[in-house]
């Protein structure tokens, strides 16, 4: 087993997750099988209870694990199916060691950071590294380990000590240390400065890890003199110093590494020089170049609670991006704070209120993502109402589906007090009720009919497996009343008791889902429901202002993207277009 450890220094948010994922893509392109382990030194056992506005998105895996969003990067870049064991936290390690101590496993020994915590970290790595994540039999060739946080953080010391011990006892040519650092430019001087990286590497070496390769984040490519200076002061060969300069999109990062022979440097350290052939990244780079060449825009308004935090909806953004590339559209995302749509904001901050509504009304499509709590719920309900009444394509995920149900009950059924038990436990009309258990992880949804947009987008399969993270569901006692007024629940659980997919048949594209399709979207294999949203938004684009409600007969005459139209083999309006989208998405993935 070969190990590549990725650390970072100077400042946080350097993009070491993208760097680690890109290294994985490059090694996979060299013919190696790759797996990942993410180490987070916080004391939480997982990310499940962490706030998105502090930690970023909570990513959900098939096994129900709630993990760091970097595991989402790994999955998207390598199309890997990871488990909760691929995410190591200080909380998990400490809990495991304390449980062993309570059972008496240590036979009365004094339990200490060294050796007990550090040994457990190393044993975890060795145990998980041999488990394949690519769906094939046999162990992977390389395990990429990303250490979260920044070198010098006190909470990461036990992990660095464990990795130092691990490198010491590892066999020759099995351990490669990659350090991601920052080479800033001082505006007044206009010169790339190496001192921050020098100090970061010095700190890393003092803690027992010596980098084999430096990956330096910078605004512009590193010049030759900067590389030579870093080599001299950091004791890293010039050929093992690569620049990670700004690129049009993150899909270019693997190409950036290959262009600087980073794969040859890593394979050389790992004793695999026979594999130093030019990696095959044609399909990957086709997607990156396609994105760069897109000009026709599609504008999507994402209405959420944490829109001021860039990483709070990371998978949502990536899924929209994957779909926009498949539909040959340049994505423009307008992040709309849900609370700014409320009347309360209109009274207190009229400028913010006006701006939020301007963004919403200028969008070609509306997406309301999942979430918990009361924050911004009123604004999300208004967004769903606007999309429904003006025939604007709408995708509601989790809570986004819930607010659509609440809005329909209030506006169409006339139940003004309709609400979710999550927001009003005493509501007279509980559209959504609490489930007996928290539903997390992959579950199966069965289509009740093939005559719906969602089934066509998924390729007319009988069921789909998607990931969930919710504790409230549509009240079964209200389903009949909702459907009699025109709403249709086209997907349910196997027993037919739990409503999973909502559609408004007369609407251009109005879909709400209980699950989170964004977690399984991949470059080249976009989520079908996101593809449907982008296709509908593209075919119904407007020149400013809102879209007026139109009859189904008029909707069928809308133009569709050329790429999608060429993939469709049937005619008959938007729903046939959506069936064609499934074909074009499969072709793009192939």
TrEMBL record:
<protein>
    <recommendedName>
        <fullName>CTP synthase</fullName>
        <ecNumber>6.3.4.2</ecNumber>
    </recommendedName>
</protein>
<dbReference type="InterPro" id="IPR017926">
    <property type="entry name" value="GATASE"/>
</dbReference>
<keyword id="KW-0547">Nucleotide-binding</keyword>
<keyword id="KW-0315">Glutamine amidotransferase</keyword>
<dbReference type="InterPro" id="IPR029062">
    <property type="entry name" value="Class_I_gatase-like"/>
</dbReference>
<dbReference type="Pfam" id="PF06418">
    <property type="entry name" value="CTP_synth_N"/>
</dbReference>
<comment type="pathway">
    <text>Pyrimidine metabolism; CTP biosynthesis via de novo pathway; CTP from UDP: step 2/2.</text>
</comment>
<dbReference type="InterPro" id="IPR033828">
    <property type="entry name" value="GATase1_CTP_Synthase"/>
</dbReference>
<keyword id="KW-0436">Ligase</keyword>
<keyword id="KW-0067">ATP-binding</keyword>
<feature type="domain" description="Glutamine amidotransferase">
    <location>
        <begin position="309"/>
        <end position="535"/>
    </location>
</feature>
<feature type="domain" description="CTP synthase N-terminal">
    <location>
        <begin position="2"/>
        <end position="271"/>
    </location>
</feature>
<dbReference type="InterPro" id="IPR027417">
    <property type="entry name" value="P-loop_NTPase"/>
</dbReference>
<dbReference type="GO" id="GO:0005524">
    <property type="term" value="F:ATP binding"/>
</dbReference>
<dbReference type="InterPro" id="IPR004468">
    <property type="entry name" value="CTP_synthase"/>
</dbReference>
<dbReference type="GO" id="GO:0044210">
    <property type="term" value="P:'de novo' CTP biosynthetic process"/>
</dbReference>
<dbReference type="GO" id="GO:0003883">
    <property type="term" value="F:CTP synthase activity"/>
</dbReference>
<dbReference type="InterPro" id="IPR017456">
    <property type="entry name" value="CTP_synthase_N"/>
</dbReference>
<comment type="function">
    <text>Catalyzes the ATP-dependent amination of UTP to CTP with either L-glutamine or ammonia as the source of nitrogen.</text>
</comment>
<feature type="region of interest" description="Disordered">
    <location>
        <begin position="540"/>
        <end position="569"/>
    </location>
</feature>
<comment type="similarity">
    <text>Belongs to the CTP synthase family.</text>
</comment>
<dbReference type="Pfam" id="PF00117">
    <property type="entry name" value="GATase"/>
</dbReference>
<keyword id="KW-0665">Pyrimidine biosynthesis</keyword>
